[in-house]
Design a protein that fits this description.
Layout: E1 8-11, E2 16-21, H1 27-33, H2 35-44, H3 54-65, E3 70-77, E4 80-92, E5 101-111, H4 120-135, E6 139-142, H5 149-157
Parallel strand pairs: 5-6
Antiparallel strand pairs: 1-2, 2-3, 3-4, 4-5
Helix pairs in contact: 1-3
Length: about 180
């Protein structure tokens, strides 16, 4: 697709929404958009998730966006960025235990609070699916934290089915705490 051509565009009576591929010049914007989802995680698990830091997140996105296996999309409504998705193509080889697998793995999905419940998350996810098909990837995958019931409900409504759970337990409490 051309740089100026959106992946997906929806025009309604009052609003125009488009999703475009993010490029390296969008790293700072993605860093700012990330704050909405980072804050939620930080509030629930402050010992694991840092407070939002748009500058640090922008540096992270700049490093990711130059990798061929990583793709990000930005949703814009009436010309303003209102959300993004970040995904990575993962390919697992055939082994003695598992079959070869290809997945476009969603690492981040964020929509600004003021733009929620307007189909933007669904539009971003449809764009991720389109990218997976374009890459010849078998499936899209993602994870969400158990505390995030809105994410579980949203992804379930799109047909995502949980298939694995992870667990943890501290063996040296406080060892990883930051001073």
């Amino acid at each position: 697709m051309g740089a100026d051509r959106p992946y997906c565009e929806v025009v309604t009576v009052k609003r125009s929404t488009r999703v475009r591929r993010a490029g390296p010049d969008d790293a700072a914007l993605l860093g700012r958009l990330n704050a909405v989802v980072q804050q939620v995680h930080h509030e629930v698990l402050p010992d694991r998730f840092k407070s939002p830091d748009a500058v640090a997140a922008g540096v992270f996105f700049a490093a990711q966006l130059v990798r061929a296996e990583v793709v990000a999309f930005i949703a814009e409504q009436d010309g303003e960025a209102v959300g993004y998705a970040l995904a990575e193509e993962l390919r697992g080889p055939d082994s003695a235990f598992t079959f070869a697998r290809s997945t476009l793995y969603l690492h981040h999905l964020a929509v600004l609070d003021a733009a929620r419940h307007r189909g933007i998350g669904r539009l971003l996810m449809a764009t991720v699916d389109e990218e997976a098909r374009r890459r010849g990837v078998e499936e899209t995958g993602l994870d969400y934290w158990l505390f995030n019931s809105p994410a579980r409900g949203f992804f379930g409504s799109l047909g995502y089915v949980p298939y694995s759970e992870r667990a943890r337990r501290a063996v040296a409490p406080g060892l990883g705490d930051q001073q």
